[in-house]
Amino acid sequence: MRPSILLSILALLMFATSSCGTAISNNASAASPEPVAISNPPETAEAQQAPECRICNYDFEKYKGELTKAEIEGLLLALNDEYMATATYEQVNREFGDPRPFVNIVRAEMRHADRLKALFNKYGVAIPENPWPGKVPTFKSVTEACKASVDGEIANRDLYTKLFKTTERQDIIDTYRALQRASEENHLPAFQRCGGGGGGRGPGMGRGPRGNG
User: Fold this and answer.
1) Neighbours of 166 (CB within 10 A)
2) What are the domain boundaries of the chain?
3) Rounded to the nearest 5 degrees, what angle is found at the Cα of 173, between the Cα atoms of 171 and 177?
4) Each residue's pLDDT tens digit, 162-203
5) CATH code matching the domain that covers 45-212, chosen among 3.30.70.20, 1.20.1260.10, 2.60.40.10, 2.60.40.760
6) pTM here?
7) Are the CB atoms for 143 and 197 separated by under 8 Å?
């Protein structure tokens, strides 16, 4: 075979191989999908509505007692909620001159916090200070505050329902149950009556077994 013909054949083969490689490369690029940005899943409604826990940054590694992490977290969530309610009702009292039922119920919230603190002391868990004063909502009227407090007491009741699942210790369960009952049977009805339009120092807002909790 002549050298010139051989060179021509080799050139054709090289051209064909190059074209084929380019086509494969292009096809591979076309087949590869563009990377898709994966966004974080949205928070559940429960997570979005959960109140902020300002005392839950507990150093679990330093705790040497008998409670589990879940039990400590439950106590912290409960105390945080009682702290928040206390700070809210104290602010309403300051702004509106100790209206009922706030002037009565704030004392009950303090007693609730003390019951929880007794469990903290019993099990050697450090008691955090209340971080909520000055960081709670303000209201335009006592009626508005009562309506907001209805939601707060319902949330408190539902919180304790969840906290029952965090422990099997009877003393903790009994405390949770007592505080839930006070919220549901005493505080909630008082705020519902107040939020219905009475408010302030009007009729039906005085002391009584359902107003002190």
Assistant:
1) 21
2) 45-212
3) 120
4) 999 999 999 999 999 999 999 999 999 999 999 874 434 433
5) 1.20.1260.10
6) 0.70
7) yes
